[in-house]
């Protein structure tokens, strides 16, 4: 009620809440240290995973700028995020990579990849969680030194999204047994972007 802000990175010394405790994990009897309003009376911001992801990679970008894989003509930008079933799918441009990003699926165990079913087929994705923003990443290009500017990066990301979100055409009926589904890799996606 007093507009005091609970910051999970700081915690709350008065209530003996350690840094790193998310608001939803606070005890139900938690109250504001200033006006003593109960937890239920706090205003909770709407979750914006895309905005949080961009913020996380902008912070990482500050540490990447002196590396030879950093393209200074690019900035961190989220491109074309949209709902695909229960997932949120879009692209992330950074000065060192362009990835497809998927929210809404569990992360695989550390270092392992997982198949993600998108309208164009199955794609291999890796789990990532910068600053606690859990998502799956499908690498499109890294490094991205060949991209001339942000306009080119945006166009590349948009076309990649169009390709993976366009359903494969139905194959004509056949008496042959169906083939096992094939995971689409980065090379096959590039072949689609560049033409065979």
CATH class of the largest domain: Alpha Beta
Largest sheet: 7 strands, mixed
- Name the structural class: alpha+beta
Q: What is the straight-line distance between the termini? A: 61 Å
Alpha plus pi helix count: 3
Low-confidence stretches: none
Radius of gyration: 21 Å
> And the CATH topology of the largest domain?
Yope Regulator, Chain: A
Q: Assign a percent range to the helix content.
A: 10-25%
Number of strands: 7
Q: Can you identify the CATH superfamily of the largest domain?
A: [NiFe]-hydrogenase assembly chaperone, HybE
Mean pLDDT value: 87
CATH architecture of the largest domain: 2-Layer Sandwich
Describe it for me?
With 196 residues, the chain is α+β, with helices and mostly antiparallel strands. The protein folds into two domains: 1-45, Rubrerythrin, domain 2, CATH 2.20.28.10; 49-168 and 184-194, [NiFe]-hydrogenase assembly chaperone, HybE (Yope Regulator, Chain: A, 2-Layer Sandwich). 21% of the residues lie in helices and 22% in strands. It has three helices and seven strands; from the N terminus they run H-E-E-E-E-E-E-H-E-H. The protein has helices at residues 49-64, 150-165, 186-194, and strands at residues 77-84, 87-93, 98-103, 113-118, 121-128, 135-141, 183-184. Strands 1, 2, 3, 4, 5, 6 and 7 form a seven-stranded mixed β-sheet that branches. Strand 4 and strand 5 (121-128) form a beta hairpin.
């Amino acid at each position: 009620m007093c507009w005091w802000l609970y910051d999970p990175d700081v915690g709350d010394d008065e209530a003996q809440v350690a840094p790193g405790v998310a608001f939803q994990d606070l005890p139900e009897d938690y109250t504001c240290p200033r006006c003593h309003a109960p937890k239920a009376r706090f205003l909770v911001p709407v979750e914006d995973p895309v905005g949080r992801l961009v913020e996380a990679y902008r912070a990482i970008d500050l540490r990447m700028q002196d590396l030879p894989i950093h393209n200074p003509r690019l900035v961190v930008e989220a491109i074309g995020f949209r709902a695909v079933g229960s997932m949120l799918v879009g692209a992330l441009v950074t000065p060192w990579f362009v990835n497809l990003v998927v929210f809404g699926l569990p992360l695989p165990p550390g270092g392992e990849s997982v198949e993600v079913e998108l309208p164009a087929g199955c794609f291999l994705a890796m789990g990532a969680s910068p600053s606690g923003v859990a998502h799956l990443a499908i690498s499109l290009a890294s490094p991205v030194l060949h991209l001339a500017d942000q306009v080119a990066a945006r166009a590349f990301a948009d076309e990649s999204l169009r390709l993976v979100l366009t359903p494969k055409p139905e194959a004509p009926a056949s008496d042959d047994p169906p083939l096992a589904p094939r995971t689409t890799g980065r090379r096959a996606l590039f072949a689609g972007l560049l033409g065979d």
